[in-house]
Give the backbone structure.
Amino acid sequence: MSGSPSGSPSGSRRGLTFVVAAPSGTGKTTVCRRVVDADDGIAFSVSHTTRPRRPAERDGVDYHFVTKDAFGRMVEEDAFLEHAEYNSNQYGTSWRSLEAPLAEGRDVLLEIEVQGARQVRQRLPEARLVFLVPPSMKTLEDRLRGRGTDSDAQIARRLAVAEREIPAVREFDYAVPNDELDRCIADVLEIVRAERAGEAAPLRRRFDPAAAWDRLASTDAGPADRGNRPPIG
């Protein structure tokens, strides 16, 4: 299937699209799964990837695992809302994964990389973008090593990508710290419910990305290049 989702049935509420992005190791997968488990009104969008499946992962539940050729055909057919290469693998969110829940009035949660979030901002500007902020680069490294799934070289590449991604916090609607998992999950749930109710202004001030960037830039979580890249969208 190609192209953007069609409109919802006449008179019904159309769901909202939420994007959660963060550097690898920040805990976005755990946060997103827990948010969806805690709120029946939001569905999890399962991404496509060319990455090899890890032992505990299930096809169609954690990801749709596809070949590079199959992924390329989907790109040519404009089947993706967003797609990006990360750590030499391709990831993408299909329009199909959004269409049914949104039309039924359910919200949809996308767990994607920063590159993909930028595409969502351009192609679906009404989406709400949430950036999960790591406590520090040292904590990020410890979490990556604690997963036990990557080599030292892979961890070094992920940390280098994280250094480049952290300035993107300023391009998001919310910046939520993930220094304590349960608190982070509660914060994201609060954002979802406030946006759903049309009462998000206080939370946008509380989780202001510009303020988060100012804090990051004064700690070791900020990258070496502290230039002022303007936000998009």
Residues 186 and 199 are 17 Å apart (CA to CA).
